[in-house]
Amino acid sequence: MNDPRRQLPKISVLLDSAALKQAAGEYGVTLVRDAARETVDSLRRKLVGGQSVEIPSVEQLAASVAQRLNDQERLLLRPVINATGILLHTNLGRAPLPQAAIEEICRVAQGYCNVELDLKTGSRTQRTRSVEGLLCELTGAEAAHVVNNTAGATGLVLSALTTGREVIVSHGQLIEIGGGFRLPEVISAYGAILRPVGTTNRTRLADYAEAIHDNTGALFVAHPSNYRIVGFTEQPSIQALASLPDKVERNLPLIHDTGSGVLRSIAGYDFGDEPVASQSLQDGADVVLFSGDKLLGGPQCGIILGRAEVIHRISRHPMSRALRVDKLTLAALRATLSLYRTPETLHETIPLHRFLKTTTEELVQRAGFLQGELRGLPDLLEVIEDAAYVGGGSLPEESIPSVALRVRGQNGSSPEELASKLRLGDPSVVGRVQGDALILNLHAVSPHPWRDQGQTELEWLAAALREVLQ
Ligand SMILES: *Cc1c(COP(=O)(O)O)cnc(C)c1O
Fold it and tell me: Residues 201, 232: contact at Cβ < 8 Å?
């Protein structure tokens, strides 16, 4: 009778509690029952092992089961406030989507849509037709194709154009983008043979010319996105490569992986030495590749532009089917591209462009707002000058003047602890630890109403800080 195990509540009683009824509504009864069982079993094991354990009440046990479930489910794929100062952070989903793209996704997602149907004729069409015309109009390309990212686009282009043949690449462009994308490995994985030419810092036109022979499949130029070779350097222009006599005679494709996705030059923007797709095409590249979620500011996808005959071969390749984009991506891409028809408002319509145009004065105002909201804690917060970066492999050397909050923890708690608490909060805030403080860069923290909430990201950030600092 005195066996404490008898005092453990029945699972059915736990499931009847208010906390677990609510949890079951959210996560389903199976998951909740399993979690309740695990919690009770672990208590029982302790009792069997002779540990003296205080038996919690039904309410306490139910609350701890619900908490455990929340912790496990809540942290997966959720909104985050990006206070890292990296505007295109691959781990944080790169470019936030324009409002127009979000609305278009909702419109298309609610029911059926004619993703592969020509409404005029009633017959089947090419899936990416909804964006091809726009891409050609905006860049001057003859034809366009879209797959689900640039790594996929690279694989598809190599498979369609170069299998079993040599791909000529400058030694200085044998890049690793991160996340397992190493150009030499990519080239061999898709059945082509890497033919590196020149040296790390200098590659001449003659190096390319000498490497061309009967088994050459393509000339490949990769933008060294995330690093720069400076000093005593040389790399022939796209124009020079496009008009190499052997290349022209043999009708070899010149493939240009431009990475970041600057569609065309836009008045008022300086994209440094990032290649511009329309220019590359005009200079004679046969195929141009870039990502949709970098400087373009749209959804994740790999955009392929170029000569009609080459694009045709690429889009008809069997691998194209395996890399096809879904209707939601197409809807978001179409909406984003449409915004480029009015380039003078891009700084308002595309979040990434809005960040690029944010002035230091605006950022100082944001910092002032936060200081006002956190008046009681002045010695823990300091407004500092900081640098923001485009990120995502774009413009690696060009820092953007920015402003950040330097935060120290209460009672000597470490910046790592503070960073962890903010990450685990709701909403989650991601900053960066630097020395003995946590830095919260304000460049991508929007002062506009956030998502479907009435509050702004700045207000959320203030609330999150108040929570962890008090
Ligand atoms: C980013 C990048 C890629 C990979 O693009 P994903 O869209 O991430 O697949 C490939 N090449 C270059 C030059 C890049 O900058």
Answer: yes
Q: Which residues contact 145 (CB under 8 A, 6 or more apart)?
A: 128, 132, 303, 304, 311, 314, 315, 320
Cβ atoms < 10 Å from Cβ of 248: 12
Residue 248 CA to ligand 1 centre (angstroms): 27
Give nearest CA residue, ligand 1 atom 1.
259
Q: Per this entry, what is the length of the chain?
A: 470
Nearest atom, ligand 1, residue 258 CA: 13
Contact (CB, 8 A) for 220 and 167: yes
Q: Residue 382: what are its φ and ψ, rounded to 5°?
A: -140, 135
Question: Residue 98 above 80 pLDDT?
Answer: yes
List CB contacts of 357: < 8 A, sequence separation 6 or more. Answer: 347
> CA nearest 208: which of 235, 175, 174, 183?
235
Is there an atom of ligand 1 within 6 Å of 85 CB?
no
What is the structure's pLDDT at 403? 98
- How far does the centroid of ligand 1 lie from the alpha carbon of residue 394, in Å? 10
Q: In whole angstroms, give the CA distance from residue 403 to residue 386.
A: 5
DSSP-derived secondary structure letter, 406:
E
Of 133-137, 147-151, 419-423, 466-470, the poorest mean pLDDT is in 466-470
- Work out the percent of the chain whose per-residue pLDDT is above 90: 79
Q: Is 148 in the pocket of ligand 1 (CB under 6 A)?
A: no
User: What span, in angstroms and rounded, lies between the C-alpha atoms of 302 and 154?
Assistant: 9
Name the nearest CA neighbour of 156 among 328, 343, 36, 306: 306
pLDDT tens-digit profile of 54-89? 888 999 999 999 998 988 888 889 999 999 999 999
Alpha carbon of 135 to ligand 1 centroid (Å)? 19
Beta strands (DSSP E) in 25-155 are 80-82, 86-88, 143-147
Question: Is the CB of residue 468 below 6 angstroms from any atom belonging to ligand 1?
Answer: no
- The structure's pTM equals 0.93
CA distances from 470 to 299, 376, 431, 466 (A): 38, 9, 19, 6
Could you tell me which of 427, 351, 419, 418 has the C-alpha nearest to residue 390? 351
Which residue's entry shows tokens 């309740």? 36
